[in-house]
Amino acid sequence: MLEERRALQVEEDASCEQRRRQHRGLDSIQVLDWDSRVFALPLLQIQNFLSDEEADEVIRLGHEELDAQHGGGWEREVAYGTAFFHYHQSNMSRVLVELEDRIARTTMIRPHPDELPLMFTRQVSCAHAAQQQQIPGAIVGNVVPNQRVRNVHHDKNQRENRVVTVLIYLSDSGEGDGGHTIFPCLPAPAATTGAARRSFSSKFKRLFLNGSRTLSGRGGREEEVKLLAACNEQCLLAHEAAVMNIRPQKGTAVIFWNVLADGSPNFRVWHAACQVCMFPYLAV
């Protein structure tokens, strides 16, 4: 009888742990932006979406893939690394399976094989960047002075049927460390004026309607270079920016919808990752 009770207790504890993992972070949902006038779905931030241990496991799996792509020592040579978690990895890793399930329950979209989870990393400075740039930490091939934004893009840039983006930070960023995510068409919570944001919104909407999904300034068009420079200025301002900016916190998820509630494109979610200044940036 005692052994049966112990077995039942172990089973109950395991069940409680599973429920705890499934509901991780869902009790700390914060709405960062929600404009019901344009039928926009809310921009959400969820702290502790991943535990530190889960984040470390995702990093380990991502580094294995990057090692396979570039060989050892890639951190010194690769400025921007992207690791796709292939089907066999996603099914063999408990963390990735639970992550997909957690995302599905949060977004109400079932896991599907059409798009693989991916981890991306940005290094503070690389050997080839140091040789080509005079500005510490600047981006290789910069088109605006003191450039900290590689590009600004909409997540329909590669898949027009992409409905929602879930960005999960795997590393922390302190004040002045860079690595934050900016949304130039959305206002900062403490912004005193919406003029800059409204200007961004109209220009990015026009770009989207003209077929653009990525702004890099490399096409040479003066208007686009100026727009990239304006976004770069917001990156440099960081927490003092007039537009939405989110500082990375390990395990925190940011969820934004690339379509409005009626299914039409959401022009307001153009975004960019600002260059890191102190520590490597990791996200999935």
Automatic annotation (TrEMBL):
* Membrane-traversing stretches: none
Q: Residue limits of the Prolyl 4-hydroxylase alpha subunit Fe(2+) 2OG dioxygenase domain?
A: 151-276
Report the InterPro entries cross-referenced here.
Answer: P4HA-like, Pro_4_hyd_alph_FE2OG_OXY
Molecular function in Gene Ontology? metal ion binding; procollagen-proline 4-dioxygenase activity
List where this protein forms a coiled coil. none
Organism equals: Guillardia theta (strain CCMP2712) (Cryptophyte)
Q: Which Pfam families match?
A: 2OG-FeII_Oxy_3 (PF13640)
GO CC terms, sorted: endoplasmic reticulum
Q: Which UniProt keywords apply?
A: Iron, Metal-binding
Name of the protein in question = Prolyl 4-hydroxylase alpha subunit Fe(2+) 2OG dioxygenase domain-containing protein
**Is this entry keyworded Iron?**
yes
